[in-house]
Amino acid sequence: MAGQLSPEEKFTLITRNLQEVLGEEKVKQVLQERELKVYWGTATTGKPHVAYFVPMSKIADFLRAGCEVTILFADLHAYLDNMKAPWELLELRVKYYEQVIKAMLESIGVPLEKLRFIKGTDFQLSREYTLDVYRLSSMVTEHDAKKAGAEVVKQVEHPLLSGLLYPGLQALDEEYLKVDAQFGGVDQRKIFTLAEKYLPSLGYAKRSHLMNPMVPGLTGAKMSSSEEESKIDLLDSKEDVKKKLKKAFCEPGNTDNNGVLSFVKYVLFPLQGEFSIKRDPKWGGDKVYTDFKEVEDDFRGEMIHPGDLKASVEVALNQLMEPIRKKFQSPELRKLTNSAYPDPSKTTKTAGGGGGDDDELAPSRLDIRVGKIVSVEKHPDADSLYLEKIDVGEPEPRTVVSGLVAYVSQEDLQDRTVLVLCNLKPQKMRGIESQAMLLCASIEGEPRRVEPLDPPEGSSPGERVFVEGYESGKADEKLNPKKKVWEKLQADLKISDECVAQWKDRKLLTKLGQITCKTLKGGNIS
């Protein structure tokens, strides 16, 4: 097909659905003379999820346009980014990424023989590359390095030097891979502009940059490997896909931050050229769309129900995922998966370099979520207790009984955003079953002081709360009360001198930031 396309047609195919192109004229100039050389890199950190089909569909476009495409498994970058991948797991993570990325490409019909695969440490540890890292570090200011990595490198209170090196290495990769352009998400724009600024200072050519939009996850924010609620794992079962799509943000008529609709736009249409809505004849019957704008307009006009959209995406998604699931049913790939991503609740050490000697004490076993109090009233049989209804991202609010009457007024609790522990065994309190626990900071004394914990501003009900360094662990369905898991973990939950909630000096976080309280420095959490 590429040989039959004009340079203008190739450019259109290369740039369709991109949010931005830096160096557009350079790309056009190269296409007049020869095929474009492009690379896409992925840091081998958390497990790839279905949002990876977005860059995969663009790679398919690049190949149709005749581009020479290199895929970089950036293992060294994965380690430099706040040790998201520990050194001892780097090789296993690369093998996992290579197998799953190739399986994805095969599932969408991309011929692997037209691609070049390379590992970062195959060339990034060479004498020449290392000298260029030193040369670059003598030019790039701390301010520029920090700014470049702000949206890609994990941001922490006391950043490691490794995170400052990350953007410079990504810039150098363009030269050492001998490409004309780098492809990535628009969240990498600042790294791309750093490359454009500093590569010429080393005597190297300035490259072009092709940027995809950031596709919303299921919760409406960026889809993230460390946020279970925001993503569908490539190896998730059909049942898990159905369950996660059912919970996905998909408000009737709302096309903003709609991850389900975005998947149709950036994956299904580029790959299949059409999208089928399956629905009951009394609601209009099945319909095949050949233009995404028509899908968007019909959804905005509420001619497509969110339930029908989700059900239709579920069918298409399972068709893409089934070949990947089948490939990973082999004993070898099952073993690789378990070795590359060991269950943090069954290991004594985490990717963050910490953990405990007792595998009972992995904080990822706690199902802590952001909640919103939708109603609060006095317990009918106990004046010292509140009866609250709390939205935790499920179809119905949970009933919670708390002893906050002496500390917080009903008015202050109404519509308040709070933290809720959701996987304790329900227990009756004065005749009413409490289905979760409202988490608070407290300081003992006369008088005792208690404050509900505060999630970051803008948090939504159902968002997961995790402990720094334990992002990828899976919570227990229900904590076994005989094992005293909550009691053991709760002993190390504290409030810092900066009013930040911590477990063993590691922050409690959501995707938007840290958990805090208003005034109770040094308090306990219960």
Walk me through the structure.
Helix 7 packs across helix 8 (161-176) and helix 11 (259-272) crosses helix 13. The strands form five sheets. Strands 9, 10, 11, 12, 15, 18, 19, 20, 21 and 22 form a ten-stranded antiparallel sheet that branches. The protein has 526 residues and is an alpha+beta fold. The protein has helices at 7-15, 24-33, 53-64, 75-80, 90-107, 127-137, 142-148, 161-176, 189-198, 238-247, 259-272, 292-300, 306-327, 331-340, 410-413, 485-490; strands at residues 20-22, 37-43, 68-74, 115-119, 181-185, 208-212, 275-277, 287-289, 368-379, 382-391, 398-402, 417-421, 427-429, 432-434, 437-438, 440-443, 449-452, 464-467, 493-495, 501-503, 506-510, 513-514, 524-525. It has three domains: 7-212, HUPs (Rossmann fold); 238-340, Tyrosyl-Transfer RNA Synthetase, CATH 1.10.240; 363-525, Beta Barrel (OB fold (Dihydrolipoamide Acetyltransferase, E2P)), CATH 2.40.50.
Q: How is the topology of this model organized?
A:
Elements lengths: L6 H9 L4 E3 L1 H10 L3 E7 L9 H12 L3 E7 H6 L9 H18 L7 E5 L7 H11 L4 H7 L12 H16 L4 E5 L3 H10 L9 E5 L25 H10 L11 H14 L2 E3 L9 E3 L2 H9 L5 H22 L3 H10 L27 E12 L2 E10 L6 E5 L7 H4 L3 E5 L5 E3 L2 E3 L2 E2 L1 E4 L5 E4 L11 E4 L17 H6 L2 E3 L5 E3 L2 E5 L2 E2 L9 E2 L1
Parallel strand pairs: 2-3, 2-5, 3-4, 5-6
Antiparallel strand pairs: 1-6, 7-8, 9-10, 9-12, 9-18, 10-11, 12-15, 13-14, 16-17, 16-23, 18-21, 19-20, 20-21, 21-22
